[in-house]
Each structure stands twice: as C-alpha cells, then as structure tokens.
UniProtKB/TrEMBL annotation:
The organism's place on the tree of life at top rank: Bacteria
GO cellular component: membrane
Protein name: Uncharacterized protein
Positions of transmembrane segments: 22-41, 157-176
Natural source organism: Actibacterium pelagium
Keyword tags: Membrane, Transmembrane, Transmembrane helix
Location of the protein in the cell: Membrane
Membrane topology: Multi-pass membrane protein
InterPro entries: DoxX (IPR032808)
Length: 183
C-alpha cells in the first residue's frame, strides 16, 4: 500500500509542479473569457446612454438594474436620484467593461479578480434583495441539492472559484502581468 501511495504522490506531484503554476491560471482566465466576458460586456452595454455622451449619462435601465427600489420610489425618474446614485451607476458600468478585460489579458489580474468578486457580491445582493430574488427559491437555489443550476448560489459559486483562483495564482505565464514582470 505504501508503494502505491508513493507512486500516486510521485505522479501527481510531478504533474502539479509541471502544470499547476501555468495551466491553472490560464484555464481560469480562459473559463472567465469563455463564459463571463460577453455576459458582463452585454450587461454593461445596457447601462450606457445614447451616443458618445452615453458614456457619462447612464440609461434609465442602468438605474433600474442597480437601484431598483430607489427607482421605483422615484417614479423611474433618475433625475430624482442624487449624484451618489449616478456615480455608483457609472462606476458599476465601467467595472463591467474594464475588470473583465483586465482579467482576460492578464493585467493587474489579482486586483481585477478581487474587484470582480466585490462586483459579483453586490450584483448577487441586488438580485436577491433589490429585485426580489430572495422570495423565489429557484433563483436563490440551494447547495447540496439535486439541481445544479440556480442563478445565485450555484452559478455564482462557480464564478467565485474561478475568480479566487486568479487572486491566489495570478494570471499565469501568458499574460501582460508576466510580460511586465520579466522586463
């Protein structure tokens, strides 16, 4: 039995040493790009106003997505909300474009992944409490059940594992981070 354990350890220690520092971060960034990049960019596009000025003047939908209860109380008139609301909406919109791009190209990856973790936490809380998802068991979901596709607990756990991997491991060798550190 000891020989079998040593053989196992020998094989998998070599695999981890050879591919762990390079393959895991690359796969995490690929997974993020393949599954979440377009999701966040499309979401960000819904928050932009019309034309070039829309970069600085968010759409009505942006306020409704980020501050659903405040917008309802204001009669869906964003001019009734304050500067704080506008700044939060702009920051959230820009984050949906900038942070995913940084992760995909591997630049400031650990900080970008931390930013995305914060973004996903706020997004999840807004979905649950602002949009009423907490009242629908299928939206919240449950871990250790037979259904792996709830919007919040199941899907966002996978997102977090990818992002936490990038926080811990960094971007890996095929990244702007590595290129700059080698210079």
């Amino acid at each position: 039995m000891t020989a079998l354990i040593r053989l196992h350890d020998s094989i998998f220690d070599r695999l981890e040493a050879a591919f762990g520092p390079t393959l895991l971060p690359l796969l995490a960034r690929f997974t993020f790009a393949a599954t979440l990049l377009v999701y966040f960019w499309k979401s960000g596009l819904t928050k932009l106003g019309d034309g070039f000025a829309g970069l600085f003047s968010p759409s009505l939908g942006a306020y409704a997505q980020i501050f659903p209860k405040a917008m309802e109380a204001a009669g869906y008139d964003p001019s009734q909300l304050g500067t704080f609301h506008t700044l939060v909406v702009l920051a959230g919109t820009y984050a949906e474009f900038i942070l995913p791009l940084l992760i995909v190209i591997g630049f400031a990856t650990r900080l970008a992944a931390l930013g995305m973790i914060g973004f996903v936490v706020v997004q999840s809380l807004t979905d649950l409490f602002g949009h009423g998802g907490i009242e629908h068991a299928e939206t919240l979901g449950a871990w250790f059940d037979k259904t792996p596709d709830s919007l919040i607990l199941d899907q966002r756990l996978f997102w977090m594992v990818v992002l936490i991997t990038l926080v811990i491991k960094g971007a890996g060798p095929l990244s702007v981070d590595r290129f700059l550190s080698n210079r």
